[in-house]
Amino acid sequence: MNVHINVFEGPMDLLLHLIKKDNLDVCDINIAEITQQYLDYLNVMKELNLEVAGEFLVMASTLMQIKAKTLLPSQAPTTEDEGPNPAKELIAKLMEYQKYKEASKFLDQKLEENKDKFYRAAPIFDNGEKVLNLQMFDLLAAVKRAFDRLEERKRIELLKVEEFPIEVKMQKVVDLLKKRTWVLLDDIFVGETKKRGIITCFMAILELMKIKKLLARQDEKEGQIRIYLNPENKDKDFKTLMHAEAQEPQEAL
Prior knowledge:
3 strands; globular; mainly alpha; 10 helices; 253 residues
């Protein structure tokens, strides 16, 4: 399973993600709305202490520039050359980017059809569930939804000092999965009333996936994410798996 954690494909991917999520047409997007959603995602990345590449910030600046221009009173038409139109240029780039993304779908589908077809003692998934290449944006969307569910007064918990050990949240996730075959990623955040608690839960999930204690599947593209215990490590304590991973670089020397 490939989970993009450290590398984003770029701001164009995020924009297309937001456009498709709202079933919009690339040629008919609401710049003001897309700008706000884009900035919301950047804020989630910063909350999670994820390194935001400069190109994401450049795109944010471009979107805000376009948004500001659309909010200005309309000017009387002139015959003079008004110079480049950032909005039209952005839409043209998005259409070009989308064209190449769609052209690569055939190869992606063939890759998905022929990899990870057989799971040793793992859950059996139908074709609708075997979407293994999870995008970071899909994971971040679940975190954003959890943030949005918090009451506004509870979002100012940064003033309070409260510890959320990652091991405690890792144990919480594992305990949830002991009671059922799978859980939705969104359900893991249920009951968390602090933003730091949500962030720690997210980091715990990533750590459990990294040490191969968890598996993740999507029902479909842009669909909900299901979390499973990895059958190969189902009975292994996650602390043992963490220790084994920490020893690997030393053994390689």
